[in-house]
Amino acid sequence: MNYTKYDANKSTDSKLFRFTSSGTIGDVSKMVHYTVTDKTDLYNLAFGDLKYDKENEQYFIDDEIVTGNGDIREVLATVAHTAYDFTQTYPNATIFFRGSDKRRTNLYKRAIHLNLNELSKTFNIFGARMNKNGDILDHPFDYKEDFDGFLIKRK
User: Fold this and answer.
1) What is the pLDDT of residues 61-76, one digit of tens each?
2) Which domain of life does this protein belong to (predicted)?
3) 69 domain residue, yes or no
4) CA gyration radius for the chain?
5) Can you give the pLDDT at residue 85?
6) Structural domain that includes position 23
7) Average pLDDT, stretch 1-22?
8) How far apart are CA 124 and CA 120, in angstroms?
9) Which of 16, 105, 126, 139 could form a disulfide with 99 if both were Cys (CB 3.0 to 4.6 A apart)?
10) What is the DSSP letter of 83?
């Protein structure tokens, strides 16, 4: 994506990325986490603000919060950059992602649409629909269609 992106620190296995969003409300820690699913080479991309649960003494990703830091383009460009990095390490991986609600899923669809030419140079991009059994079915990406999420795979 042709936007400024933040520097992200990654784990040694390239499945966890942490960066700081800097904007109108200050600095906010963000995290991207790629987790394997029960399907071979299918990974879920989780993303959001990094929070600390004092009661359980552990960090977690809050993917429902609206940060409102005024830097959504930079944040999404950073998340997209982690997909490039992740798939360099795991070239056979397919990444599934969706928003925590319909509004966010549509935001991701718009971001894909606006950057489709660039993203398509590296990735095959599909819209994803879930069937009643919870299986993820891929469909050609079409901005005019509604999807439950998206799938990308390095070419």
Assistant:
1) 988 888 999 999 999 9
2) Bacteria
3) yes
4) 15
5) 96
6) 9-154
7) 93
8) 6
9) 105
10) H
